[in-house]
Design goal:
heterodimer, A: 73% helix, flat, B: 77 residues, alpha+beta, Glutaredoxin, 4-stranded mixed β-sheet, 25% strand
Chain lengths: 361, 77
Amino acid sequence: MSSVAHSVRQTGSGSKVEARKPRFRARTLVQLVLGLALWLALYRVIEPFAGWLTHRVLGLSEQERLGAAIAFFLYEAPKVLLLLVLVVFGVGIVRTYFTPERTRALLAGRRESVGNVLAALLGVVTPFCSCSAVPLFLGFVEVGIPLGVTLSFLISAPMVNEVALVLLFGLFGWKVAALYLGTGLVIAIVAGWVLGRLKLERWVESWVYEPIAAGAAVEDERLDFAGRVGRGVASVREVVGKVWVYVLVGIAVGAGIHGYVPEGLMAGIMGKEAWWSVPLAVIIGVPMYSNAAGIVPVVQALLGKGAALGTVLAFMMSVIGLSLPEMIILRKVLKPPLIAAFVGIVATGILIVGWLFNALL
Amino acid sequence: MKIQVLGTGCAKCKQLTANAEKAVQELGNGAIVEKVEDIREIMKFRVLSTPALVIDGQVKSIGRVLSPEAIKDLLRA
């Protein structure tokens, strides 16, 4: 019986709304194109503007420490924020097509191997907040999605994070961003598959499998084009509104390291030669909980001073992919041995990725 | 009229409850706002993400923090 309300724009007397729809669409398109043009124009002027501000207005030289740090901040901060706005907007729109309900329908009845791959991919695009992990888990179990497939989703959803992806792209280029995306997916697929093979169902709280007497499933929400764009704008407001401070602080710390920490200082501690630095990064990273926005700029600065990419990537993945709050939430449905296996296998995956990159690059 | 906010107590759920209370207060229609925090009770509504807003037993929104204005529109409809 229950149904999700249509977007506010659509409610109202039927025929009138129908007649106005094409105009809405045209107007939204025009706004979209204008918005993109403005974005592009802003993106183009950042570099000359930052240079002008540093050298002409403040009279600083790149050779000085302060100059290097300030030039770095003035260029990176607006660049990263702009990239963030664009990607969060795009992801916000894409996510209106991938509701958790639709993802569940896509995963129901899949075999384990195919299911793991699909679950990891859907984990990237489906809107997910760790506070919803429990209802999502129960909903997946309800339609018979295998435990390992569900876990693939729960690994990939937080770990492959769009904010992290943007920051990596903006600060290191597409190769590192692609490596992060690819390895994050592989970890989610393989770890989920392994956990599925281990037959750990007995470590799931038994009440999870009790049937829930309930009405019909909730219908999927219907949104028009303007409604989807509206969601994109709303997610920009929500995500960027929340993380911009972390981004600025992160870049400021990065700028400080850029200007003041001598080259190669990190090479000894976090360099390729130090094999133990990867497990250490994971051990420090797992209990830490920060959003991606705050951690990436710091990581970039470390990398610039000689830390190895694999070590840094492992650190970042364990910070955002495995977090204490999420484990506490999952404890409601999973017993401690299963949580331990979950953390252990994902951490092992991250460890292997870290070593692999240090060895290959 | 009964409004239920489904959520296990995260920040977003608290925000949605506050927004619902504000909407009711501004409309002055005397609707009751109730928080549903027990996960089994939440699952009876068959939602996959929280917070969710339920009006008179009907799920109206899932996984989003609606503004007081949007909630008012739902209450008037």
